[in-house]
Write a structure and sequence with these properties.
Two copies of one chain form a homodimer. With 745 residues, chain A is α/β, with parallel strands linked by helices. Chain A has 24 helices and 17 strands. In chain A, strand 16 and strand 17 form a beta hairpin. The relative contact order of chain A is 0.14. The interface between A and B is large, with 56 and 57 residues.
């Protein structure tokens, strides 16, 4: 392995004590790596992705049973835990305009397993949409975000009583019909614009990786920002005898019908639109004039579903820890897809299995982890984290007591390591990222990710995050950037609901996998041709996650680098303060402009127009408690890291156990049992999926959303709660520091 | 005229002394307004736009002769001044790929004068491109800007020996083949992407205003950033006996062949491209995968032109001033178009004529301006400011002595008043803008422009300028925003070469005129249907410019509000300092990343890639002289405005003459006779068209471009020269202030 001199000199750990942040034993990881096999992964991928495998399908059950056998064959103690979950599937569906009928089908592609998909493959649909039969004019709402509805108000256009058509992108799918419903729409179509993942991005399948005209993105339309998992059993495991809501009363089920359509079909509907030309940033890559509507021709949308309970099969496997059997390192990836799901989720699932196989090989040589390792293969992630959420809810008390770390992966791609989750894992991820060599660049995956961030041009979706991190990463000793996480994969119940320390890992940034996302064309052929040929990065993912698991399970000491977390919090506190200031300024300016009729004066009278939605005045906000908590956290974190570094190699076993007892559950200090306003399932005061963003994280959500949603009495309340949480985290650190300082090790 | 209370209270002049910034006599402007007529303008527009009217065409001469008669009929003293200018026109041209031949023709549209255009209409071409016959693969270079070539380097793609294809937009047309040539390309195609002015923006002509698939933007490809006007006679008038270069030796003539093409034709060429997918912000609205190339199929480009001298007919008319005949208020608009030129330039030309008619009516009632009014109808603006530049060069000495103000307009549209030029005209434009009522909103055009700036969403091409001005405009007493000006219309020789105080005015922002720009479809039918129905804004333009001329010519006092200029300079100085800092930082960062091989490490090995073009280290730069000059200017401007305000209404005639003598030529203190490096024709140290931007202005160009072009020895030189110029301007103000303070008026 070649490492440049520059890198060796400048990119070293800030805190390099062997005590801290997990231990990597090269004699173990080398043997582990040697047992991994891209060929095995390819074979498994082809088998698992050979048929549709959604919740309740025969192949989904077959995969769970087969995985169970694999784990047992590898030497793990494994079982299947089954939940009974609501899973809506379409009985009939239609989108029509005059004589035009949308296809709602994806024709198979010869030479691709998509052509052999069994007839139990689901047609295009959105799980947990609300059945209905509606006819109304269309309004095009761009991505269907809150910003887009503000723009609609300026255009003087209402969606009340209309069917909206939104394009995929920017916010999570489920936000689009939810906001449409909240604005009075009676139906919602979502299509994949070729600008976002079609021909504009590259050649379309089968010539290239991108979405063909008839491709359709399925998905969940659950209001998972309220709570994920089974809609009928919020907060408790969906066991056979659990108390249940009905699908009509479940608040996370959508109230209006909604369907996804292809861009071939969307083009027909959009081309027929009338009304004003869409604003520049609303236009996609179809060769038409995008118009906002309302369309002159009514559209008929009809969906009817079955609302059955289905079994969700979680495969749970473990290797008991030799010294700390009640300290669990949990690692998961889901096994259900929307059709064949080769990229999403099976490319991550086969990496998980390969890790399990390699750990099984280690077991046979007498190796044992100090902590217990729990591998989980989740079912029902796609409908919205069903298997993981129900398991986490069912085992909540035990997990809060025993889980040291939850590591998640999902569909994997090619390129650069990305990490998100609890941000006190920076040093831990750094160690792991320096133990794995990138096969394309022959440097560590840590250095490659860093070079990517530092050299990326200032555009594209990651530009803002890149810029924020770039100046930090230029400095020697910078830890690997761990982003804040919202939702969108199985880590959510651990991070957002339980406060278990959580890490989400994956590789991406080079291949274009979006084009077949949640479509019939997410096949093993597609994945192996365009996303990760030879599953080279499948093996790199196994190495990376495997090393993380081995490091975390290899000792009984804390993983936390709290200075990274304190730095992130400082940034987030500044951000929310700036948000309040800019919102106050905008509200004042808007009030003045409304009073002087300026919007009407500036409007083109030949086009529809309207005043903006009136903002409420932003009161004076006392952020001092939050500033003080941030400062306390920074100080406590520095003291803890110094005490840890001062300790060198050794700590008496009793002190180590005490230290770990304090630190293992430290991220649970960030929870508030009352939860976020209106969505008590979400208890983490630092991280949550944005209420109207979806997968994307909103940091300090109690405070941030109280401001953006103009709930002024919640602002001081959540400033106090959030400050208390940060102070509780700092107090826990202070206890640990005192322990370290008094220990004779 | 209704004015809201809010507006009356808050949007008043900072310096309201009648002495300052021109006087508006309502008894005169009311009579002037009453004589204006949209109906007259419509009739003239139809006649003047009835046939192609490029330089050298029969209809171009007919317009000049007819306008001469009109001026005389109105009571003006008028003549035609003729120059002999180089004007290249195509003899033969071809763009071919395999069996495909680009059309290079715009088919006429039935029911439109485009269908009756005489056969002397020019085909699609670029004036002053360099004849040639080349065959090479294509490379797509996005807009063909400097930034785009930097991106190409990162993609590891060279244009050396290739033909580039660029889309119109972002920078001026002529920059694209020039940069292509400088990067080693042997030919250049430019096409109009539907994203920029085709179907993405709205329905295409004749259904709507936007560019149809076969529409082509003609234009000049002269290197006007070197010098505009006749390529053979830089710096002197192109009289019959002037000393001339040849077209082969003229440095402003392009060295490679270049042609504009339609998007119907471009789609064929672009669809056949191979190579990497174009970066996201390189993609237009064609339904294809945009690729960078090089294309696998060679393209054949051939252009042959005639290089004749042609007559350019400037119509010059004047009304002698009653008190100050040697103080000239000059106002111009060109009369030549690329085909029929209804929007560009004739919509502005008929407003000019209407003003001349109304002033003629005033003349008949015994009114006389105090200063001399000179109206000019320029020929040959389209090939690149031929008529105006030659006239300004020919009369340079007289203009520098006598011109008080040059007011320019060009094609007019519908919507909001926009002003640019010398930024000490803020108070003057404010007065004018408050004297004209907007017909759509029934408020003053000043207030409407302000409300537009304050309410505009934060996107689109004017977002940055809007944001910068918005917070200033919220405050009571803010003057009308006068933007800095570069080039792109006939004001350039006055502003950039002579230092005559210059103002460019026009209305726009509501109609979409870009779609027929420089095409056969820029017809009176198009203009009257889509751009300014009823020429309502034609009359508003006449009122606005007419009032400006009447105000400037109505007294013998200065027009300057130097505090506006000082504020602009403060902003520009800060801007260039920040530019140096960010460029220094970027160069340091790049050096570090190149040394560590980071670009290669971060690159996808399956795609072409390269290191960025190496930046030179930015030395320490002493900006203190510029800061000091800016501070001096701010102080002197405040003192002058205070002395003027303190004076109230009266100033003895002798002092007024002295004051005007000092202030009339104050903007000439901003010139440096040596000119800008490598382009001595451009003498203004504050404003110039950006060397590789074109029409767009670069402020403090001597300093700014020395930094961006890494000419480090020029940086202190031009900091000194620019500081001296600002100090000279301030010193002139100090003289005026002393005069005002000592005057007994």
């Amino acid at each position: 392995m070649r490492r440049s001199i520059f890198f060796s000199l400048s990119f070293v750990l800030a805190a390099s004590s062997a005590l801290a942040q997990g231990t990597l034993d090269k004699s173990v990881t080398d043997r582990f790596d040697a047992a991994l096999s891209s060929q095995d992964q390819i074979g498994w991928l082809k088998m698992m992705a050979s048929e549709p495998n959604q919740v309740g399908s025969p192949h989904d059950k077959l995969i769970a049973d087969w995985e169970l056998q694999q784990f047992r064959k590898f030497g793990w103690d494994a079982h299947i835990e089954t939940f009974q979950v609501l899973f809506s599937t379409p009985v009939s569906e239609a989108v029509e305009m005059g004589s035009f009928k949308a296809t709602l089908q994806e024709k198979p592609i010869p030479g691709d397993t998509s052509s052999t998909a069994k007839d139990y493959a689901l047609p295009a649909y959105l799980a947990y949409q609300g059945d209905g039969d509606v006819t109304a004019p269309l309004v095009y709402v761009n991505y269907g975000t809150q910003e887009d509805y503000k723009q609609l108000a300026r255009l003087g256009i209402s969606v009340k009583g209309k069917i909206v058509i939104a394009r995929y992108g920017q916010v999570w799918r489920g936000v689009k019909p939810l906001l449409a419903y909240k604005h009075g729409a009676i139906g919602c179509l979502i299509y994949s614009d070729p600008a976002d993942d079609g021909y504009a991005e590259g050649a379309t399948y089968p010539e290239g990786p991108m979405r063909p005209p008839q491709g359709i993105q399925r998905g969940s339309a659950m209001d998972m920002m309220l709570y994920p998992g089974d809609p009928l059993t919020p907060g408790v495991g969906a066991t056979a005898d659990a108390k249940r809501l009905t699908h009509e009363t479940a608040p996370s089920v959508l109230k209006i019908p909604a369907l996804p359509i292809s861009y071939a079909d969307a083009q027909v509907l959009l081309k027929a639109m009338t009304g004003p030309v869409a604003p520049q940033n609303w236009r996609g890559a179809l060769p038409i004039t995008y118009r906002v509507g309302p369309g002159s021709q009514p559209v008929h949308l009809e969906v009817k579903s079955s609302w059955d309970l289905q079994p969700a099969y979680d495969v749970i496997a473990q290797i008991k820890g030799s010294q700390f059997p009640d300290q669990w390192v949990v690692r998961g990836n889901h096994h259900d897809g929307w059709v064949e799901g080769a990229s999403d989720p099976l490319s991550g699932q086969v990496a998980l299995l390969d890790e399990a196989k390699a750990m099984g090989a280690l077991l046979k040589t007498g190796w044992r982890p100090k902590r217990t390792i729990v591998y989980t293969s989740w079912d029902g992630e796609e409908p919205m984290l069903l298997g993981s959420t129900e398991w986490a809810e069912q085992h909540a008390a035990e997990l809060k007591k025993k889980a040291v770390l939850y590591i998640n992966t999902d569909g994997n791609s090619r390129g650069f390591l990305r990490a998100s989750g609890n941000q006190d894992l920076g040093a831990f991820v750094t160690k792991v990222s320096e133990s794995v060599t990138d096969p394309e660049a022959n440097v560590t995956v840590g250095r490659r990710a860093r070079d990517r961030l530092l050299t990326a041009a200032g555009s594209g979706p990651f530009a803002a995050a890149m810029k924020a991190e770039a100046s930090r990463l230029e400095k020697p000793g910078a830890t690997f950037p761990v982003g804040a996480a919202g939702s969108g994969s199985d880590f959510s119940p651990f991070l957002d609901h339980l406060g278990v320390t959580t890490l989400n890992l994956g590789f991406g940034g080079e291949a274009k996998s979006g084009g077949v996302y949640h479509s019939r064309y997410d096949t093993s052929e597609h994945h192996l041709r365009f996303i990760d040929p030879g599953l080279v990065y499948g093996k790199v993912l196994s190495e990376t996650v495997g090393h993380a698991v081995l490091a975390a399970a290899g000792n009984g000491l804390p993983l936390s680098s709290p200075a990274d977390f304190a730095r992130a919090m400082k940034g987030d506190i500044t951000k929310v303060e700036k948000l309040a200031d800019s919102q106050r300024e905008a509200a004042q300016k808007q009030k003045m402009l409304l009073a002087s009729n300026a919007y009407a004066v500036a409007a083109d009278p030949t086009e529809p127009h309207g005043n903006p939605v009136a903002m409420s005045a932003v009161p004076a906000i006392d952020f001092k408690p939050l500033d003080a908590a941030g400062a306390t956290l920074t100080k406590s974190a520095a003291a803890y890291e110094a005490a840890l570094a001062a300790h060198g190699q050794a700590l008496p076993a009793a002190d180590a156990a005490k230290l770990n007892g304090l630190m293992q559950t430290i991220n649970q200090t960030l929870l508030y049992e009352g939860g976020l306003p209106g969505r008590p399932w979400y208890k983490n005061l630092i991280y949550a999926p944005g209420r109207y963003v979806g997968y994307g994280v909103t940091t300090l959500p109690g405070v941030t959303e109280a401001i953006t949603e103009e709930r002024w009495s919640d602002v001081p309340k959540f400033i106090a709660l959030t400050s208390d949480a940060l102070k509780a985290y700092a107090a826990r650190l202070d206890q640990a520091t005192a322990l370290l300082q008094s220990s004779k090790g």
